[in-house]
Amino acid sequence: MLSYSIQKVGSNFDTVEPQGPIDLAGMLRAIDEFPWCEQLRDWNEEQEGPLPALVLESEADQRQLWITALGEGLGQDFQLQSVATQTRKGLFGKSRQDRNVLVFDVFGRSALNQLCALFCEREFDALDHEAQRLARQAEDDED
Known about the structure:
The chain is of the alpha+beta class. Helix content is 36%, strand content 36%. The protein has one domain (2-142). It has helices spanning 24-33, 36-46, 109-120, 124-142, and strands at 2-7, 17-21, 53-58, 63-70, 77-89, 95-107. A six-stranded antiparallel beta sheet has the order 2-1-3-4-5-6, covered by helices on one side.
């Protein structure tokens, strides 16, 4: 089951507001309906705390996709964080949680929709591959 949460300006970094179960169509609608302009305006005034975000989550797979709108032309450019948590055996057989986070920018709503579709279809290998490609592309563009 997929669910989503929101993080609004003024929240603590580790605080999200659960919104309940969701599917791809519902997530795309949530992205459209989220008050990005108002939230980013509030953040610009406060300049403190987390940026507003929507968080798509597959608890069974221990995966999250954090979505934040960027820029003045809201709805086209986004920053995403792909989060994967894995349990690994540590020393002496004790398990520990490893959390892998990849942050990357997405330019264009169709690319965001595609990444959300991969997440909702639990195509995590394809999602990770595309996220790494976008992160490398951004690094190459900076050079």
